[in-house]
Amino acid sequence: MLLARLGHRVLMVDRASFPSDAVSTHYIHQAGLSRLQEWGLLEEVTGAKTPAIRKMNFSYRGIELNGFADPIDGIDAVYCPRRTVLDEILVNAARRAGAEVIEGFTVTDLVFSEGQVTGIRGREGSGPEREFRASLVVGADGFHSTVAKKVGAELYNVRPAAGFIYYSYYSGLDWGLHHKTGFNEQWIGTWPTNDDLTMLAVICTRRHLKEFRQDVEPRFQAVFDDVVPGMGVQLREQGRREEPFRPMRYPDNYYRRAHGPGWALVGDAGYHKDPFTGWGITDAFLHGEILAARIDEGLSGKRPMDEALAEYNKVRDEESAGVYDFTTTLAELTQLPPFFHATLGAMSTSQEWTNKMLGLIAGGVEDHEIFSPDALQRLYDDAGVPESERVYDPS
């Protein structure tokens, strides 16, 4: 969409036919919604009757942070659209911008010439193999990326995945947004979505996966009973599951080299982290916008394409590092490291600091506004934390 709006000739192929569902946490942070707003698409998301959420109920092993981030670019809510809604909005926007879209197309290979990617091969449905040539091939094809495999994009900063997810959609519940980690390495999440349904999800550590698979429904209920007993009662008495459970046994957290001769990667194809903080869609929007700008510079001759793509890779890594560290730490579902235990505990005593922390998670507050030495001093002073209990070093 962005490249077509800049006047470039774009072909988009996708194995799916839209509207199409996808295994996804649905959550779009305010930083991601600001991109939809900038692109003129946010009203389409809200127009699809996607509920506005203006309070987050967050807890981690007894530490409560209940509130909401300050507005970002005037956006004072978050939304969790079904992928059947969001993806069709994006695909149609790409078409309107002038991109050619082929649905139901499976990419089977890349075309190479003298070590450079020059196109793709694949089939539309069961039709004959087709080949398309291009100046650049972008793989936005998820963590099982065909493009990444074919070019041998190496992994780095890999951290083992801690858990797995099961989720489904329920009627009869009016819970709003909850993000709660219990004391037994278990997590529950709830957020309203389209069609008057609430998405309910649980995360457990990998060692529970085998037993969970054997009896999903009672195990799912048991996690709610353990983490928030009152919600467990309501789920049992009032909730009605409307669709099958969807499992997500996600891969390890990783970065992939995101560019090379004739190719680039974006979204989970190039960078994946635990879904615990719900940053997948937002990062895809932010990084997609950065990549489109760099590709435009390369295609228009403003700078060499290799140089432009290398900068995209660098900026992506730098801007995502904080969320990556925070996500992979909390996703362990175990006792917090001393630094995070001290800081989150202090924030929980103040609505101002709670909202500021939720603003950091939402993408509207920078790390230094909370974690610089001066900010930490103010935080501990405001919370009345004794000097002996203050921790300043995250390492």
Would you spell out the secondary-structure blueprint of this structure?
Layout: H1 2-5, E1 11-14, H2 30-38, H3 42-47, E2 56-60, E3 63-67, H4 83-97, E4 100-103, E5 105-113, E6 116-124, E7 129-133, E8 137-139, H5 146-151, E9 155-159, E10 163-171, E11 177-181, E12 186-193, E13 197-205, H6 209-214, H7 216-227, H8 229-238, E14 240-241, E15 246-248, E16 253-256, E17 259-260, E18 263-265, E19 271-272, H9 280-299, H10 305-330, H11 338-347, H12 351-362, H13 368-371, H14 373-383
Parallel strand pairs: 1-4, 2-11, 8-18
Antiparallel strand pairs: 2-3, 5-6, 6-7, 9-16, 10-13, 10-14, 10-15, 11-12, 12-13, 16-19, 17-18
Kindly list the characteristics that best describe this protein:
395 residues, alpha+beta, FAD/NAD(P)-binding domain, 8-stranded mixed beta sheet, 3-stranded antiparallel beta sheet, 14 helices, 24% strand, FAD/NAD-bd_sf, NAD(P)/FAD-dependent oxidoreductase, FAD-bd
Number of helices: 14
Rg of Cα set: 22 Å
CATH superfamily of the largest domain: FAD/NAD(P)-binding domain
Using the coordinates shown, work out and report the CATH topology of the largest domain: FAD/NAD(P)-binding domain
Distance between the termini: 41 Å
CATH C-level label of the largest domain: Alpha Beta
CATH architecture of the largest domain: 3-Layer(bba) Sandwich
The domain count comes to 3
**Biggest sheet, in brief?**
8 strands, mixed
Strand content bin:
15-25%
Give the low-pLDDT segments: none
Structural class: alpha+beta
How many extended strands? 19
Assembly state of the chains shown: single chain
Kindly state the percentage of residues in helix: 25-40%
Mean pLDDT: 96
Organism: Streptomyces sodiiphilus
Protein name: NAD(P)/FAD-dependent oxidoreductase
Pfam families: FAD_binding_3
